[in-house]
Amino acid sequence: TDPHWLTPSFFTAYGLEMKEGERELEAGQFLLLKPRCWVALQVVLYLNTHFRHFYRRMYGDKDTWRLAFRLARTPIGLNPLP
After folding, report:
1. Exposure pattern of 61-70 as b/e (b: 16+ CB <10 Å)?
2. What is the pLDDT of residue 39?
3. Who has greater pLDDT, 11 or 39?
4. Burial class (CB in 10 A: 0-12, 13-18, 19+), 47
5. SS3 1
6. Gap between the terminal Cα atoms of the chain
7. Each residue of 25-45: b (16+ CB within 10 Å) or e?
8. For residue 23, what are the contacts with CB-CB under 8 A and spacing of at least 6?
């Protein structure tokens, strides 16, 4: 799988820039504090509720997490080892 399924033009369409070295998230394996990322979680819910529109442009729910946190301006800390 291409780790850059979401292209720079995809990010630009949502007013964002793709960061150098940005990679996909494994949505089944992360820890979060709901109070800190409540807005991002609501964006994830919206993106997945409207999957018919968004999944045509991304690789399923895996990419909705990355996009939602970026749109909500909520930082994500990633382990440097894939």
Report:
1. ebbbbbbbbb
2. 97
3. 39
4. buried
5. coil
6. 14
7. beeeeeeeeeeebeebbebbe
8. 3, 4, 78, 82
